[in-house]
Amino acid sequence: MKVTLEVGHGPYRDRDGSTGFEEGANGRGTTEYKEVTVMANIASRLLRDKGYEVDVLDPMDTLEAMGEYARGSDVFVSLHLNAFNGVTQGTEVLIHRNGTAEDEKFAQFLLDDLVSTLRLSDRGVKRQGLAVLLGVPLSVRAACLTESYFVDAVDAATARRYTEQAARAIVNGIDRYAISRGLNPKPPASPSPTPTPIPSPSPSPSFSETLTLVNVAKFYKGLPHQNAALEWLQQKIPSETFAEFARRWRQQ
Fold it and tell me: What residues make up the domain containing 73?
């Protein structure tokens, strides 16, 4: 199972192409970005120790584009901290306003562990039109954004303690979710291979019917080995079909 963790705030790119850096919410001697960076580092290490494949994202890009980096992952978690009036405290987890039932179930797993670990008030799972979640591909099973605590309501030492606890809670929530869905984080160990004679090369596969053109031109244009793919197609489909495919490919 693959997990993508996104570090909230930090370097960014606006829609107009300009770039910058933001610390997020300000705390008492620390910032949101500093704390969620620590949180991501701890959580990623613990997840890898459990056998999960983990990507940690902190690229300079737009929020809308950030979710696209999760392609190929099973779950996506954007790590954030809240701030309000220096007094309010609590934990909440957000999903996109059009999030799926699976998003909500995943968020609830994380919320339950965060609340039981941090012992802060339960502010629930909420829906909101978050750009970073809007960009997450539909191929990702579930996505959410955590607001583990209010960074402006505690001093720096307490914030760091909450950060470390939150990282462990998020890992536990992801792990419990994976188990509930039968997602094994680590493939079973393969037995030691028994030496076998090297087989003779297999004959090239034969096709019992002629391949026909389908609308996959855009897909093939995006492949790193698109030329090889086109050469393979040219060998397998009639010349007039290939000509039509190439015409569509050039127009993408």
Answer: 2-180
